[in-house]
Amino acid sequence: MGCKVETLADRYDLTAPGSGDHSLDEYLVARWTGRDGRSADGYKSLTEWFNKRVLKELYAEVDRETLGVHLDREYELITGDDDVAYDELAAALAADGLDVERIENELISWSTMRHHLKGCLEADKNTNEAKTDWESNTVEVARQQTEEKAQSVLSSLASKERLADAESAEVDVQVKLGCSDCSVRVPFDEAVERGYVCEQHVSDEDEKETTVDSWKNTLSSVITPYGAVEAVQCLILEEPSLLETLLLPAF
Ligand SMILES: [Zn+2]
Ligand SMILES: [Zn+2]
Q1: Which of 37, 109, 117, 181 could form a cystine bridge with 201, CB 3.0-4.6 A?
Q2: Looking at the structure, do residues 151 and 234 belong to the same domain, yes or no?
Q3: For residue 59, what are the domain limits?
Q4: How far away, in angstroms, is 214 Cα from ligand 2 center?
């Protein structure tokens, strides 16, 4: 059983762009790690790229315009918050025989892309750095433990009928760092990689104190209304606010 990325890649016969020397998976890993010589892409841009490929295939099936500019704009409408524009597009798609809800169901979330890269493909972005970077390792170990703990209570929640689709849910724990001066929040890894939390509010002074300890003061978290997951966090972490937990339907 493949994950949703694999299922869709098979269904729509998705391949890597270009000469065809690489498989789609090799292409995704190369872009994610930056091994293709360009700067490394995050899950979000890979997810967007992948979803647009799927959208293009869906459009092609009904001979709808698939030029990049149309596709980009319509992808934004499908995934955006503009309800009026969304409804108009839904009607236009329906006229072409496309159900907008079916399209949305075919699109993947960035956590699915992350799971595909790190789980299915066991790709690793910072193989060399990770071994010596105890700060990041500590956070990563705590993150994985929380993910495992949360996963382990899901079947119990399902059997008690407290969470209907618990068994098929994918647990996604992410550690984010927040700026103390504005609403900017970035994934922990990303902040460490680029060397600052907030571009706008990083000052020379802040840079000098950029240690995990000073970050702890500005960590923010959003916790889902799942009491059990919150409890798990408290059990295993001294600092439960370090972690953000999201429960997402797998597909
Ligand atoms: Zn996968
Ligand atoms: Zn800021």
Answers
A1: 181
A2: yes
A3: 4-120
A4: 15
Q: In 80-120, where does DSSP find H-type helix? A: 83-95, 100-106, 110-114
pLDDT tens-digit readout, 173-188: 889 999 999 999 999 8
What's the angle, vertex CA 178, arms to CA 29 and CA 227, rounded to 5?
85
Whether residues 169 and 96 fall in one domain: no
Q: List helix spans (H) across 96-171.
A: 100-106, 110-114, 127-132, 134-159
Indicate if 156 and 228 belong to the same structural domain: yes
State in Å: Cα 236 to ligand 1 middle. Answer: 28
Backbone angles phi, psi at 178, to 5 degrees: -115, 145
What is the Cα–Cα distance from 185 to 93, expressed in whole angstroms?
A: 35
Distance CA 122, CA 66 (A): 33
Task: Judge whether 84 lies within some domain.
Answer: yes
* Residue 46 domain flag: yes
Confidence class for position 126, pLDDT limits 50, 70, 90: low
- Pair 146, 190 in one domain: yes
Give the pLDDT confidence score for residue 226 in this predicted structure: 42
Q: Which residue has the higher pLDDT, 74 or 137?
A: 74
Q: Number of folded domains in the chain?
A: 2
Instruction: Please tell me the distance between residue 251's alpha carbon and the centre of ligand 1 in angstroms.
Output: 12
Same structural domain for residues 80 and 115? Answer: yes
Task: Give residue-wise pLDDT tens across range 14-50.
Answer: 999 876 678 899 999 989 988 777 778 888 889 999 9
Q: Counting ligands in written order, which one lies closest to the CA of residue 220?
A: 2
In a domain, 97, yes or no: yes
Q: How far apart are CA 137 and CA 124, in angstroms?
A: 13
